[in-house]
Design a protein that fits this description.
By secondary structure, the protein is mainly alpha-helical. About 65% of the residues lie in helices and about 0% in strands. α2 packs antiparallel against α4.
Length: about 250
C-alpha cells in the first residue's frame, strides 16, 4: 500500500468522525475571528497593539509598519480576505492557503522579538491552519509529490458519521498547548515583556536584579535592539550580596 493510499484512508477516517467535524468548524471560526479583528485594525488605519511602547522590539516593528501607508492596509485586507474565505465552506482550502504564510510570518516574528502578545497564540494558529490544510487533504494532495492512490476513498456523507470521541487526538492537542506554555515559560532566560514594570518584575527574588533592571531600561527606556540588550545582560555580573534593585 503506497503512502498516498494510506493518507487517503487516514483522511477518510478522520472526515467520518463527528467530533473532528465540530472541531474543524471551531478552528475555522477561531482563526477567522483572529484575522478579521487584526485586519480591520489595519484597514481603518489604527496602529496594532497601540498600548505597546515604541521602544519595545515589537513596538519598533509595529510603528514602522504603521507608517508604510497602503502596504499596511494591504496586509489588513489580506487578513480579512483569508478570514472570509475560511468561513465559506467551498473556499476553506483557499483561505487556509492564504492564511498560512501570514500567520507563519507572525509566529517567527513573535519568537524573534519575544513578544508575549502572540508568542503562544501565533504557533497555535499555525498548527490550527495546518490542521485545516490536512482536513482538506483530498483537494490538496494533487500538488503533493506522492503517487496517486490506486484505491479511491470517498468521504462519507453526514448520516454515516461516527460518534466515537477521538480521545488520543484531543489529548495530543492538549499536550501541544502545554508544551508551548512550558517552552515560553522556560525556553527563554529573560523576556522584554510589554512594559518596564512587568519586565523588571521577572527578576525579583533572583541574583540578577541589577542586570535585569539594566536590561529592561535598555529595552523600554532607551529603545535599544533586543540582541544588544540581551548581550549586555549576559555579560553583566550577578548581584553582590545584600545588593538592592536600583
Amino acid at each position: 500500500m503506497g503512502i498516498s493510499t494510506k493518507l487517503d484512508k487516514l483522511h477518510a477516517e478522520a472526515r467520518q468522525n463527528r467530533w473532528l467535524r465540530y472541531f474543524t468548524i471551531f478552528i475555522r471560526i477561531a482563526l477567522a475571528f483572529g484575522f478579521a479583528t487584526a485586519g480591520m485594525v489595519k484597514i481603518v488605519g489604527e496602529r496594532f497593539a497601540s498600548g505597546l511602547s515604541v521602544n519595545h522590539p515589537m513596538g519598533h516593528y509595529l510603528e514602522a509598519l504603521h507608517h508604510t501607508g497602503y502596504y499596511y492596509t494591504f496586509i489588513g485586507i489580506g487578513q480579512v480576505l483569508a478570514a472570509i474565505l475560511l468561513l465559506i465552506p467551498r473556499t476553506v482550502l483557499l483561505g487556509a492557503i492564504l492564511y498560512f504564510p501570514i500567520i507563519l510570518n507572525i509566529c517567527i516574528l513573535s519568537y524573534a522579538v519575544r513578544f508575549e502578545g502572540s508568542i503562544i497564540t501565533s504557533p497555535l494558529m499555525v498548527l490550527a491552519d495546518l490542521y485545516l490544510l490536512c482536513w482538506n487533504y483530498d483537494k490538496l494532495k494533487h500538488i503533493l509529490p506522492f503517487n496517486n492512490a490506486t484505491i479511491p476513498v470517498d468521504v462519507p456523507k453526514q448520516k454515516t458519521l461516527s460518534n466515537k470521541f477521538p480521545l488520543k487526538f484531543f489529548l495530543a492537542v492538549f499536550a501541544t498547548f502545554v508544551i508551548l506554555l512550558l517552552l515560553v515559560r522556560f525556553g527563554f532566560d529573560v523576556m522584554p515583556r510589554n512594559s518596564f514594570k512587568d519586565c523588571n518584575a521577572q527578576f525579583k527574588g533572583t541574583n540578577r536584579t541589577k542586570a535585569g533592571y539594566n536590561f529592561c531600561d535598555c529595552i523600554h527606556n532607551n529603545g535599544q535592539p533586543l540582541d544588544k540588550c540581551l548581550d549586555d545582560y549576559k555579560k553583566a555580573p550577578d548581584d553582590m550580596p545584600n545588593a538592592s534593585t536600583p
